[in-house]
Amino acid sequence: METIKFNCPFCQHSIELSASFGGKEVSCPNCSNNIQVPQAAPGSGKEKINPQQILYSGTRQAKNVFDDLRKIKFKEEVIPIDQSNIQMLLRDYAFWAVTLMGVVPLLIVTVNQLNAQLTLFALFFAFVWGVILKRFAINDDGGWILPISSLFFTGIVGIWLLLFIYRVFLPDFYINLSDSKHSFVSLIGLIFHVGIWEETMKAVPLLVVVLLFKSKIKPIHMITIGVFSGLGFAAFENLHYGQSAVNRAFSMANNYGAVGLESGVKNAMINVMLRAVSLVFCHAVWSGIVAYFVATAAIRKERVVALIILGIMVAAFLHGFYNWLQGHQQTMAALVAGFSFVLFYGYLIKLRSMGELYESQQQMLK
């Protein structure tokens, strides 16, 4: 016998009736609503759609959804913030790190002046690396005032003082060694001119802090101060190199037209990203290496000057050798940067063990 299978439009109960009921009204055995049995197309078995039933069913479902929405407590469901978790958020380091990383750049671009935006972005990347190194690599729970002061001192006063020394005190032949066409002479210049003087200047704020506060500064905090000094140097130096990259792009546009402009802009973008991310890191690591030797000298209280000079020489060699390889073999330069961090991390491990000796010495002095 031919049958008609369909669902009740009100409760979706499955119903099967004889084909003779097609087009007639029947009562649903489940919900008792009156429904019209669809006509079965010959040989198809498909239900006949009743627009009125669909409209009625849709209206009823919409009413149910609306009633459910009225019963929802939106304050609890949509805004999961109350007095207790506000306190948790204020102390949650990961929350603030991720928030600042995502929001601060959006705030920087609201500043009208382009030069101000560039300066703020340079400082932003320096502070990002500062937080990462202080929190995760150095694991220093000390304050922020001295590290941040070190950053701005080196970035503003230190770079100006270094340029003043270059102009007034250093002979031209010495300054030009790093630009020599002879590869070996260039390497010597990059180590004994660029490396030595930059690493010495980055060490100045740390040495001042050690002289002023002496035993009040923990050795591990000395590393943080040194690292932030390197970050400040890199941040403000990057502004100069960013402008140089723009000037090169302009020159290429004048010489080669649209093709030169495209190439120059892409090179400038790569240069800015490289310096904002990796070279800030490199400067921080190299100055951190010098800081390790300063901290070691503070703990041992012997061969102080020799240890500081040794630290500057190690950092200057890594710094100069990296710069030299950048112009010859960039893959090797990247490996030197990686080795620098491995060396720095090894120094940190060694310093933590020496720090126990330092703490015992301080207890004895008290």
UniProtKB/TrEMBL annotation:
Q: What Pfam families does the entry give?
A: PrsW-protease
**Which InterPro entries would you find in this protein's record?**
PrsW
Q: For this protein, what is any one GO molecular function term? A: peptidase activity
The answer on whether this UniProt entry bears the keyword Transcription reads no
For the biological process aspect of GO, one term held by this record is: proteolysis
Q: What is its EC number?
A: 3.4.-.-
Membrane-spanning residues where? Answer: 93-112, 118-137, 144-166, 186-213, 220-236, 272-295, 304-325, 331-349
Alphabetical keyword list? Hydrolase, Membrane, Protease, Transmembrane, Transmembrane helix
Q: What class of enzyme is it?
A: hydrolase
The record ties this protein, via PANTHER family, to: PROTEASE PRSW
Record's protein name = PrsW family glutamic-type intramembrane protease
Q: What is the lineage of its organism?
A: Bacteria, Pseudomonadati, Bacteroidota, Cytophagia, Cytophagales
